[in-house]
Amino acid sequence: MEKFFKGKRGECTARRFVEKRLRMRVVETNFRSPWGEIDLIARDGEHWVFIEVKTRVHTLRGLPEEAVDEKKQERIRRVAEWYLTHKGYNVHHLLVRFDVVAVYMREGKPDIIHYPGAF
Amino acid sequence: MLAKVLSATTWGIEARMVEVEVDVGTGLPAFQIVGLPDAAVQESRERVRSAIKNSGFAFPAQRVTVNLAPAFLKKSGSDFDLAIALGILLATGQVKLAFSFLLSSFVFIGELSLSGEVKPVHGILPIAHFLSSQKDPHSLILSCGNAQEGALVEGVKVFAFRHLQEIVDFLTGKIGREPFSVDRDKLFTSFSGREDLAEVKGQRKAKRALEIAACGGHHLLFIGPPGSGKTMLAHRIPSLLPPLSLDEAIEVTKIHSVAGFLSEDQPLITERPFRAPHHTISDVALVGGGQWPRPGEISLAHHGVLFLDEVLEFRRNVLETLREPLEKGKVTVSRATAIVTYPAKFILVIACNPCPCGYWGDPQRSCTCSPRQILQYRGKLSGPLLDRIDLQVEVPRLEVAEMSAEKEEESSLEVRKRVEQVRMIQRERFCKDQITLNGEMRASHLRKFCHLVPEAKHLLDQSVEKLALSMRAYHHILKVSRTIADLEGEERIQVHHVAEAIQYRSLDRRWE
Hints:
The complex is a heterodimer of chains A (about 120) and B (about 500).
Chain A: H1 2-21, E1 25-33, E2 36-44, E3 47-56, H2 70-86, E4 95-104, E5 111-115
Parallel strand pairs in A: 3-4
Antiparallel strand pairs in A: 1-2, 2-3, 4-5
Chain B: E1 2-11, E2 14-25, E3 30-34, H1 39-54, E4 63-69, H2 81-91, E5 106-108, E6 111-112, E7 118-119, H3 124-132, E8 139-143, H4 144-151, E9 158-161, H5 164-171, H6 184-189, H7 204-216, E10 220-223, H8 230-235, H9 246-259, E11 274-275, H10 283-287, E12 288-289, E13 294-295, H11 297-300, E14 305-308, H12 316-320, H13 323-328, E15 330-334, E16 339-343, E17 347-352, H14 371-379, H15 383-387, E18 391-394, H16 400-404, H17 412-429, H18 443-449, H19 454-467, H20 471-487, H21 495-503, H22 507-510
Parallel strand pairs in B: 3-4, 5-8, 8-9, 10-17, 10-18, 11-14, 14-17
Antiparallel strand pairs in B: 1-2, 2-4, 6-7, 12-13, 15-16
Helix pairs in contact in B: 1-2, 3-4, 7-17, 19-21, 20-21
């Protein structure tokens, strides 16, 4: 349960960051599909941006962004495709981007790093 | 946006143009390369991505599709990195060509490092040679490490760069560049001191055979006890051969370029190759092959000498692969990925002991081998292979008197003068026949150029019958007698020429 709340807190922080700092318009949070979940879906100008949020309290097990391996990337791609198709778009006519937002939950203020076009 | 950049790749020792088309557009971000690329080409995606980033440009977060055309040609290696990177920069509009710059007249070849540095690749000379043979030669853009090799061919402008950023500046007109040029005559003057024939004492018969082999391009077998000087003699045959002509040098260099044996400080091979592979060599390494075919030792010895020391220690299947190349002067390698033909005109020199212990027939030491052992040992040199070797010479143990004699031996330089003389005669004779040496003559040439005096013809016919020689052996004797006659400057082949040629043949018969 503790893990779950940690993740939730990280996602809230990330969402605020994406909207306030990056000036993107978030259209979905925690979008679920048969293929898996995407933390944030946002619009950045013409781009559809699919964002994976990774939260870590300490770096003992590596950096948060390192946890997004190829298997996970492939899953997010598939969900993104599924999402856009369901919305009635042709994926080949859209500008799509995949970002990673890494959140370090330090005491007090969290550290946030944004990777545009991570994969 | 679509961009098209030209590149090229080697195919055997020839080359083909490759069009690199890059499309950057909408869709899920991805970077794909199509057009039968192998693993090395697939890996170029990572190199290109980093090189673009580290040269101060942005890699697009869009769908990038690269097509290498023609699609049926299998592509391998890292040659296309540069063209792919430039295609991406052009397709994303990060590079705007200078107004006067005609992209389609340039061919880009080079590997990229992660930092954006342009690295040299193998096989530039065949590509430059291919471009020069076309009606409207393209210019080459490549790495500094390849510049000398590319500039060897006349008629092709070569521009050399160190970094992707420099090339972009060149394309956009920010910097100018003069075409790279190389002084070919200077490359030819560097002549290293070779081993000299004068260092070998005695062995007059073997030296004579060496000279005949060098003159006419005949194959040679030395047989004798250990330590009699077989290897020493064989190593001196390059010093008897005339230097390579420019065309020959370029042909040899092309093969070595494809095999990746060229260095930056020695872009042109000007000395005749001398290849002496160890007897553990495999058949594929000898004749060429592999999944992506590479030239073998026989092609690396093109226009030079292939020396197989201790030939009876080679695996039998390895030796048998020599049969067709020895006749044809080239070898065709067929693999799933490609069918390529490599030239392989060389003088074959082989050396062996007469028996496993090495002393059979030695007047002073007795041989300890059983007849069966000896037969088995010699069985490795099959009749068909032996049939193709024109000069079979015994190299006996040296007498003490000969060894310690202070007599001045003939130097390589003197012999080479005679060899060059004889080669000149042959060049004039064959000027219309696309061959250069007596050893390469076909049946039609034999009829045309080997006129025997009647007594010589009689002797030859008789010996062929008595010694039960094959038709091929008959032809080879004719070729060798032609060379011997040329050495004496005779137009018609005399009795003693034929007689000498036949006695170089008799060895294999005596074994039985």
